[in-house]
Amino acid sequence: MAELVLGLATSHVAFITQSPEMGSPAQVEGFRNGYQRLGQALRDSRADVAVVISGEHLNYFFIDNMPAFCIGVADGFEGPTERGAGIPYRRIPASVELANFLLTSGLDQGVDWARTEGWELDHGIMVPLYMIDQEARVPIVPVFINCAAPPCPTARRCYAFGEWLRDAIARWDPSKRVAIIATGGLSHSVGTERMGWIDEAFDRKFIADFIGSDRRKITTLTDEQIAAAGNSTSEIRSWIALGGAFDRRPAELVFYEPITGFATGCGQVLMR
Amino acid sequence: MAQYDVNRVLFDLIRKPDRAEILKNLGPFLEGYRLSDAEKAALLDPGYGQLLALGALPNLVFKYYLWHGLPPGEYAARAAVNAPKSGS
Fold first, then answer.
1. Hey, is A112 helix, strand or coil?
2. CA distance B35 to B9
3. Could you state, in order of their start, the residue ranges of all structural domains in chain B?
4. Domains of chain A (ranges plus CATH)?
5. How far apart, in Å, are the Cα atoms of A53 and each of A50, A95, A222, A243?
6. Three-state DSSP class for residue A78
7. Residue in A193, A199, A202, A262 to test binding to B, most B beta-carbons within 10 Å
8. Which end of chain A is more exposed for a tag (fewer CB within 10 A), N or C?
9. pLDDT tens, residue by residue, B2-15
10. β-pairing, A69-72 with A114-116?
11. Would the CB atoms of B79 and A62 count as touching at under 8 Å?
């Protein structure tokens, strides 16, 4: 069976590359150092491929045809959609083999996938990948969870999706090493009158439950509780999915700060 | 639930290479969409809080705001005008 070697969770806020001066220098340095740790962990893991789970910001996926879960199937993906994100527009290699395996596995049992072969990735995936794997050495399989156009998959569903993903990866090529990277969150609001506000109490409680011994607590979060912490806090669904994939495996908090200048509670976690 | 046509306008503008020109004279562009009078007015004004109240998705409304060259730091105050209460 393929080995699930590493899980990384990180906020994907583009301020870190686009305009880092907006954040307090100490916090920004901590966030950057956290990214360096995540990048080193990815290198040390010798992962052959990384499944990257993220919401998206209505740049590609729209309500004319909005999937709950979508998998990208192609040999590479380009981005970011936002040309002003402070990183070069580039192509990331991708694993068609793993993508097709997960797609067909899910359609047999577990996930009624949508698939896309033409996804231009936005900052939600491209900024973290630039910070973690600037040379784009690790091919990816991008996975979308609808976080921006409610109703969205529930916390319980996202955790179960992560458990399914873990089991599906285990059935893949036994010679392969797979990492999962979840991006998004933590608490923030985009486009509402609360933009700029961070719910630090929510973030710290979520992180405590996420890295704690009873990770399943995060499945009890309701859509209303998540939304009350900011409309874009919805992105923690990718973290919740990672939590399901690494159910019972240890987790380490790498960084958390409410970075006011970034209008986001910024967190990073490492799981092995 | 989001209102389709007002969101469709905002989403379609993302990839318009002549977006800046379209925004200078938005009326003709809106003719191709089935919009209520209130939705048209909110887009033309533009009223960001009104757009949110009418079911425009926040991510798209914020993009619309930025396309008008306005400072990000002032968005919350402008969006608070006539906006629905978030998180309720």
1. coil
2. 9
3. 4-79
4. 3-271 (3.40.830.10)
5. 9, 14, 20, 12
6. strand
7. A193
8. N
9. 699 999 999 999 99
10. parallel
11. no
